[in-house]
Amino acid sequence: MTRQASDSLFERAQKTIPGGVNSPVRAFKGVGGNPVFFVRGDGPYVYDADGNRYIDYVGSWGPMILGHNHPAVVEAVQQQASSALGFGAPTELEIQMAEDLVERIPSLDLVRMVNSGTEATMSAIRLARGATGRDLIVKFQGCYHGHSDSLLVKAGSGVLTLGIPNSPGVPAAIAEMTLNLTFNDSNGVRQAFSEYGDKIAAVIVEPVAGNMGCIAPLPGFLADLRSITSAHGALLIFDEVMTGCRVARGGAQELYNVAPDLTTLGKVIGGGLPVGAFGGSREVMEHIAPLGGVYQAGTLSGNPLAMAAGLATLAPLNTDFYATLSARTHRLKDGLLELLAKHGMASSGHAVGGMFGVVIGASEVSHFEHVANSAISAYNRFFHGLLDNGVYLAPSAFEAGFVSIAHDDGVIDETLQVADQVLATL
Ligand code: HOZ
Fold this sequence. Notes:
By secondary structure, the protein is an alpha/beta fold.
């Protein structure tokens, strides 16, 4: 497979775009080589600038739960585009979106639309601080909540991939307000609260970690976070930007039966257009302007094109949909683990709803250190072998994979056949 057109686009891109990309993980720094430039998507497939076809397990990093170019989503966007692209004023579509989300996710009484996951988590943190009158935030190492200052401390995703755990430009005084603990370690959380309990505004967590590979919560971990935060008057924030409407109809909080005070959303709820949201109980959300003094705003928030794409994507997402999606995702993850074992590579992995991760060179994966100490170079060789044979995984061992409903059993089997051939050559 040749990628000359992608290579020359990358060369051109680097002249006017930092690193040639608009988001660092895309630069392939983690896996080596040049990024692929895409032109078109169709169901489970994406096509690059050279016309090569790939089975896509990135899915725009989550939103493409129905597959690429889904007719109902495309039609909804086209129809809205023919009426108006935006007003910076209210529309009924925003109410429909809020009503849909509040119905799906019972912990939401009120929800505010924004334009990205980063905006959603940044706003939720400000709200938590404003509502509690406290400053400290607890997060977990390797969890990524976007790139706002408070949350860019020992984060996951691109900062892990590029090895910049603490970004220059984040003032030390702000970083000191964030306590970093170990994912899946309830005792660590208890200890932090026994020391700083009356100063902690919130614990923010990806209920299924998706930015250090994919790591499911251990039984009881999320429930422990709920009880510890409640006992100390702190808020619990579930960052469901990835998991929301992706692992279950009502997100990870439905799957694990734990209700947070605040939830952040993005990705699936925008159907591929730039969207984020944060919401929670009426009591907490009433601190947000114009009802309360915590300020947050945005010209493009609730943009009608994005609302139309999101509503069309959410419409078919019922309980049966998730049963099918989850079965396919497990089939893929289990198949990959079997193949890795067959080819003599120890590995471990998780699949939750439409998210999965396989870690090569680790027999157990429940927190950041397990992934950090895994065989990253083996993942990178596997990644390139798959890429050259028409399967597109995330270009970093520290990212989750995403399956869409268009990835039927035939597509999964084709992926496993390719993986078998590639692993035989590594
Ligand atoms: N940080 C994103 C994944 N966790 C990558 C975003 C992108 O490159 O589009």
